[in-house]
């Protein structure tokens, strides 16, 4: 069983120094990583976030098997822009041979500077076939997949992102963390929720602290319930983790990385922008997406982003409904034209959870899956369930 869920508000002995995060040859300063998010952390969004602050900005999750099969969508997800000087890509895979071959291809083509492995996907369609968060529940296989990636990566650092376990009765993070470190992972990130929780409830920061203690020679990154810059510092101070992984807090808030940069540099933290400034940022996001995928697809994608951008601004329900039918850049600009550009975010709105909060859900794995000594991967269906990435 996992220890009692830690409360992020629990006081500790006091602040600790926060230095740069080192992942192999890469120095990340401030120690902040953008969490891979499907349909979000594409080239356009990464570009936008990097304009506000520094960190390590990871791609959407990419399917290792799809790379080897030359899937057009997969390689599009794996693309980087010329301004991305540290090309960070997250891979999903369940077969050591496939993972090793995909990593070797990426390295031989000088396509990446950092590879992250995803073992935290809680989607039922994935775990019931032995993929995602189910892989650490078969520790020998988990270790083999990580080792295959590391062995084929050369000098490119490989990191691992995982969850506490399948549920409170099937906890895997400590053994998985040790196996990842033994295999040569340059860092281990823990989303401090179980697969059963998905994105509900509180993240258990106590588990991050346990993993830090268990892996004295490997940087541990914490993920979960970081909604403000102060939350990021609190997590580091209270768990001893070497850095933070930021996900849903930056949805509709790419400037959050500027706030984090301010915090770690000891500067006053910039406020949430007024509506007029937010409108300029959102329009630039739409233009970057249009340049990448064309206006039609970009505006379909921007509909969900606009819901996040407008969170906390008192613009009224009619405006919020209108973003669900945006089709052109001109319509996006027209949306803001009649609104008061001086409107500010309502108190506490920026600190409130955003994005999906689904869960809890029961976790199903294949019959006989909980065999710690087995290195047999699931069939190819487990990989194909994560289409394109």
TrEMBL record:
* Gene Ontology MF terms: flavin adenine dinucleotide binding; tRNA binding; tRNA dihydrouridine synthase activity
| InterPro entries registered for this protein in UniProt | Aldolase_TIM (IPR013785), DUS-like_FMN-bd (IPR035587), DUS_fam (IPR001269), DusB-like (IPR004652), tRNA-dHydroUridine_Synthase_C (IPR024036), tRNA_hU_synthase_CS (IPR018517)
Mind telling me what this protein is named? Unannotated protein
Per its record, the protein catalyses: a 5,6-dihydrouridine in tRNA + NADP(+) = a uridine in tRNA + NADPH + H(+); a 5,6-dihydrouridine in tRNA + NAD(+) = a uridine in tRNA + NADH + H(+)
Q: Pfam families from the entry? A: Dus
Protein source organism: freshwater metagenome
Q: Which cofactor does it need?
A: FMN
Role, per record:
Catalyzes the synthesis of 5,6-dihydrouridine (D), a modified base found in the D-loop of most tRNAs, via the reduction of the C5-C6 double bond in target uridines.
**Which keywords belong to this entry?**
Flavoprotein, FMN, NADP, Oxidoreductase, RNA-binding, tRNA processing, tRNA-binding
- Keyword set includes RNA-binding: yes
**Sequence ranges assigned to domain DUS-like FMN-binding in this UniProt record:** 34-332
């Amino acid at each position: 069983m996992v220890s009692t869920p830690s409360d992020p508000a629990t006081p500790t002995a006091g602040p600790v120094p926060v230095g740069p995060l080192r992942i192999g040859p890469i120095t990340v300063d401030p120690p902040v990583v953008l969490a891979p998010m499907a349909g979000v952390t594409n080239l356009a969004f990464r570009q936008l976030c990097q304009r506000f602050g520094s960190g390590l900005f990871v791609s959407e999750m990419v399917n290792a098997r799809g790379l080897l099969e030359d899937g057009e969508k997969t390689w599009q997800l794996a693309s980087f822009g010329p301004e991305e000087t540290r090309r960070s890509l997250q891979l999903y895979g369940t077969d050591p041979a496939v993972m090793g071959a995909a990593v070797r291809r990426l390295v031989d083509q000088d396509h990446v500077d950092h590879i992250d492995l995803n073992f935290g996907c809680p989607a039922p369609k994935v775990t019931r076939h032995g993929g995602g968060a189910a892989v650490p529940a078969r520790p020998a296989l988990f270790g083999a997949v990580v080792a295959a990636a590391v062995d084929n990566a050369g000098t490119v650092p490989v990191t691992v992102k995982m969850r506490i376990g399948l549920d409170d009765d099937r906890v895997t993070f400590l053994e998985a963390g040790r196996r990842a470190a033994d295999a040569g992972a340059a860092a281990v990130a823990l989303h401090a929720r179980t697969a059963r929780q998905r994105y509900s409830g509180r993240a258990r920061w106590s588990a991050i602290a346990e993993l830090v203690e268990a892996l004295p020679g490997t940087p541990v990154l914490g993920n979960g319930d970081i909604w403000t810059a102060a939350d990021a510092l609190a997590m580091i101070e209270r768990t001893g983790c070497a850095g933070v992984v930021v996900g849903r807090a930056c949805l509709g808030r790419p400037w959050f990385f500027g706030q984090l940069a301010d915090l770690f540099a000891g500067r006053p933290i910039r406020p949430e922008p007024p509506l007029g400034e937010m409108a300029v940022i959102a329009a630039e996001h739409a233009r970057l997406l249009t340049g990448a995928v064309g206006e039609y697809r970009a505006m379909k994608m921007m509909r969900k982003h606009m819901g996040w951008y407008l969170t906390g601004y008192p613009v009224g329900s009619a405006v919020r409904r209108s973003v669900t039918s945006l089709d052109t850049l001109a319509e996006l600009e027209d949306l803001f034209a009649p609104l008061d550009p001086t409107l500010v975010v309502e108190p506490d709105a920026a600190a409130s959870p955003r994005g999906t909060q689904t869960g809890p859900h029961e976790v199903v794995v294949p019959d006989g899956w909980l065999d710690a000594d087995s290195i047999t991967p699931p069939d190819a269906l487990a990989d194909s369930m994560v289409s394109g990435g």
